[in-house]
Amino acid sequence: MDIFGIPIQALMGQLLIGLINGSFYAILSLGLAIIFGLLNIINFAHGALYMMGAFCAWIGLTWLGLNYWVALIAVPVVVGAFGMLIERTMLKHLYQLDHLYGLLLTFGLALIIEGLFRYRFGISGESYPVPELLSGGFNLGFMFLPKYRAWVVAVSLVVCFGSWFIIERTKLGSYLRAGTENPQLLQAFGINVPLMITLTYGFGVALAALAGVLAAPVFQVNPVMGSNLIIVVFAVVVIGGMGSIMGSIVTGLGLGLIEGLTRVFYPEASAVVIFVIMGIVLLLRPAGLFGRER
Amino acid sequence: MNGKHIGWIVLLLLGLVAPFLVYPVLVMKILCFALFACAFNLLLGYTGLLSFGHAAFLGSAGYLCGYTVQGLGLSPELGLLAGTVGAAALGFMFGSLAIRRAGIYFAMITLALAQLVYFLALQFPFTGGEDGMQGIPRGHLFGLIDLSDTMNMYFFVLAVFLFGFWIIERAIDSPFGQVLKAIRENEPRAISLGYDVDRYKLLAFVLSAALAGLAGATKTLVFQLASLTDVHWHMSGEVVLMTLLGGVGTVFGPIVGATIVVSLQNYGAELGQWVTVLTGVIFVVCVLAFRRGVVGEVALLIKRSGIRP
After folding, report:
1. How far is CA B121 from CA A109, B53, B111, B212, in A?
2. What is the spatial distance between Cα B166 and Cα B175, in angstroms, rounded to a whole number?
């Protein structure tokens, strides 16, 4: 069976990879949007922290013998705590300054983290085995669906929509949204805003680390996996705009799929298609698809 | 005689003496990066726009210059011209898109567009992909001066640098530069005074891109090489570091910053991976505790001590 002369297996295979990439774009841009909302900082270290999540899972498995399921819970907690440490010791001092300093500081942190991992692990990368429970796959007749890939997409969707629910539909989320609008006023109501900022940054970082753990069995675990991804995620964020949580999720998944389709029909352009879309969106709708000018 | 005149005299003297004291190729490298950083500072320091994609101008001008000299067999001055004009055109495209958003988005857009250029450079046949362009001839300047001679090349690079630096300095001191500073300080007020802010921003962006291109094209002639390193986002980060370390918004700061960073990379080559870590640490320290940069701090010290230069 062919569609436009492309075998359907190939098409579905690339769409699945696109969907997986899209899941990572969605989780990472969601984290960036949450952090930006409250801290007004674009976390350049997001990619490095994602890479750190993947490496922590690998280190846990090979050095400490902790399996995938432990890593899935423990790594986001550990890396999230590391993020909170960064916020308390460094980012905290920048809130009164131009937002650009936050970008520059986190850029420096990204270089430090990436450099340290490169020093210890080289750039060749390590491979992380797919957990036994999720190895193998389903034969859907028209394509073969590896269980682990289906799992990645499912977890990402649950995490994204869970985050959306917490932020848009719970009391805790209403504090977060209020803090995004007017932190001084929120503090006047007796909410501990500095603590909330720290936890928010930790949560965003934990999301990045979780994406890293999910990515470890799919991609090669290597020190530069984050920096290549983060620039694409920045483009995703510009396209979607950071005004809405749902916008980040939809844009991330959608662009992943478009990238997958491009890889089928015009492979040469697959590396640049998201940047080209960004250019077009900026021409037609500068605030982004879901954004508002602020 | 004010501080700026003294600065110019010191700069000229250093430029004339340096190649006899230090390895001339290193000084040429410093001069290229100094011009690059000064061009970048015109945007960050005087207009308040953080471009995270300046490597695209440096690198693509390098490729254009290399292609003009090697592929078309034209003279080096035409190579520089091609690189500069090409970078200006690219700057116009980048600028038109990026100034549609302000602040943090501006940085992300320029970074993403530069990554687009990186992937194009990787895929285009004439750039040589991963290998880059190698063995680019330096040729004869105006058909007369043999640039393969190191000292001839050095004084040519010095002249190019001083020319570029002079343009930047003139731009900063001109009414145009005053408008840029007004935009940096308070954009809504500049708009309410009737200035077409977007046009000024775009013009500053194109000027900065063109001079970054001049620096990139010159660098290609010096090293006879154009490679992916110059279009990689690491390079965009490096120029931010040079400017930040030397002093954002100071005339001579980027030159000092470029000198420190290039020397560090040169003499610290045996540090290997630690150079990346060290670069990151300098970034963090500069942002947290040293935001004025070297020149900014020195200027403050002179001011406090009451010496009027």
Report:
1. 28, 14, 15, 17
2. 16
CATH number of the structural domain spanning residue B112: 1.10.3470
B246 and B37 in contact (C-beta within 8 Å)? yes
Determine how β-strand A137-139 pairs with β-strand B133-134: unpaired
Helices assigned H by DSSP within A134-224: 147-169, 171-181, 183-188, 193-215
Asked whether the beta carbons of residue B288 and residue A90 sit closer than 8 angstroms, the reply is yes
The answer to whether the complex's ipTM is over 0.90 is no
Query: Which residue in this structure is represented by tokens 């990379």?
Result: B265
**Residue A221: beta bridge partners?**
A126
Closest by Cα among A39, A52, A27, A28 to A198: A39
- How large is the C-alpha radius of gyration of chain B? 19
Taking an 8 Å cut-off on Cβ atoms, the answer to whether B119 and A268 are in contact is no
The whole-number pLDDT of residue A292 equals 65
Q: How many CB atoms lie within 10 A of CB A158?
A: 10
Q: What is the span of the domain harbouring residue B84?
A: 3-305
Q: Read off the pLDDT of residues A69-114 as tens digits, 9 standing for 90 and up.
A: 999 999 999 999 999 999 999 998 888 888 888 889 999 999 999 9
As for how many domains chain B has, the answer is 1
Say which of A97, A234, A268 has its CB closest to residue B123.
Answer: A268
Task: For residue B128, give the nearest of B75, B59, B54, B222 by alpha carbon.
Answer: B59
CB contact under 8 A, B274 and A115: yes
DSSP-derived secondary structure letter, B147: T
For A45, which residue in chain B has the nearest alpha carbon?
A: B280
Count CB atoms within 10 A of the CB of residue A121.
16
pTM: 0.89
CA distances for A241 relative to A95, A237, B91, B103, B280, angstroms: 22, 6, 24, 14, 28
